[in-house]
């Protein structure tokens, strides 16, 4: 299996604070990987570095063999690095169909054509409808986003991200605040994405992490503490110490 994303000696300082320190990490193509760590571990800063929201103080980021360290966030999206956010980013007055169709138009460089009514963009609407159906949202595509459940809104966020045709999908706590039955729907949807989409999940819920991830990376104090299979991570004494006794037991098969 080939490497899709790699960081070498990646660091970021904010004044005298080192938020991320010398992280060297490789993500395999088609991965189902989680990034975990206690609060303040540097997870968000690391993802901001990957997406270009903040530049590194040192180090290099390589994606699909290209050095993208200094590329803009927009250029990284065009290359296939797409992120969802923990805080819901959708416009309440839009329908899911409109939200996903707009993402399709933006991806194809047709956002300037939005002076035309959205209903005239038939190809974008057809693609959006297909994506929504594939995520179980066909029955909600014409409903204002404000009227659908929070869990389905999180699924819609993922659908908007998929409209950008990602090679790497960065999921920032996709099930945060979602009822249990909808959490399972979200994670099953992510797990069943085609392997042409690599997934890096940032999540605090250890049960979800251990059920979803094939490999787990642990950040502590801005540094990569350990990376391995769920069993390896769950049994690593350094990880247990970092979580100060929190349960990291992998669920029974």
TrEMBL record:
Q: Which residues form the ABC transporter domain?
A: 5-246
Q: Which Gene3D superfamilies match?
A: P-loop containing nucleotide triphosphate hydrolases
Key words of the record: ATP-binding, Nucleotide-binding, Transport
**Looking at the record's lineage, which domain of life comes first?**
Bacteria
One GO CC annotation: plasma membrane
InterPro entries (alphabetical): AAA+_ATPase, ABC_AA/LPS_Transport, ABC_transporter-like_ATP-bd, BCA_ABC_TP_C, P-loop_NTPase
The reply to whether Glycoprotein figures as a keyword in the UniProt entry is no
GO molecular function terms attached to this record: ATP binding; ATP hydrolysis activity
Provide an example Pfam family for this protein: ABC_tran
Which protein is depicted? Answer: Putative ATP-binding ABC transporter
């Amino acid at each position: 299996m080939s490497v899709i994303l790699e960081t070498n000696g990646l660091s970021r300082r904010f004044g005298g604070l080192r938020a991320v320190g010398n992280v060297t990490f490789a993500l395999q193509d088609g991965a189902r990987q989680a990034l975990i760590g206690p609060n303040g571990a540097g997870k968000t800063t690391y993802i901001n570095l990957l997406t270009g929201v903040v530049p590194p103080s040192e180090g290099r980021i390589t994606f699909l063999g290209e050095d993208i360290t200094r590329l803009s966030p927009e250029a990284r999206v065009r290359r296939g690095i797409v992120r969802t956010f923990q805080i819901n980013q959708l416009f309440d007055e839009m329908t899911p169909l409109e939200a996903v169709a707009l993402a399709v138009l933006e991806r194809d460089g047709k956002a300037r054509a939005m002076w035309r009514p959205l209903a005239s963009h038939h190809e974008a609407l057809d693609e959006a409808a297909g994506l929504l159906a594939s995520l179980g949202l066909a029955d909600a595509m014409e409903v204002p986003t404000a009227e659908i459940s929070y869990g389905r809104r999180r699924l819609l966020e993922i659908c908007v991200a998929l409209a950008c045709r990602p090679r790497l999908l960065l999921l920032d706590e996709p099930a945060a605040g979602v009822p249990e039955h909808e959490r399972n729907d979200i994670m099953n949807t992510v797990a069943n994405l085609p392997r042409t989409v690599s997934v890096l999940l940032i999540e605090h819920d250890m049960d979800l992490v251990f059920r979803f991830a094939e490999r787990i990376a642990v950040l502590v104090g801005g540094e990569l503490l350990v990376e391995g299979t769920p069993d390896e991570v769950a049994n690593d004494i350094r990880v247990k110490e970092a979580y100060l006794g929190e349960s990291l037991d992998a669920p029974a098969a």
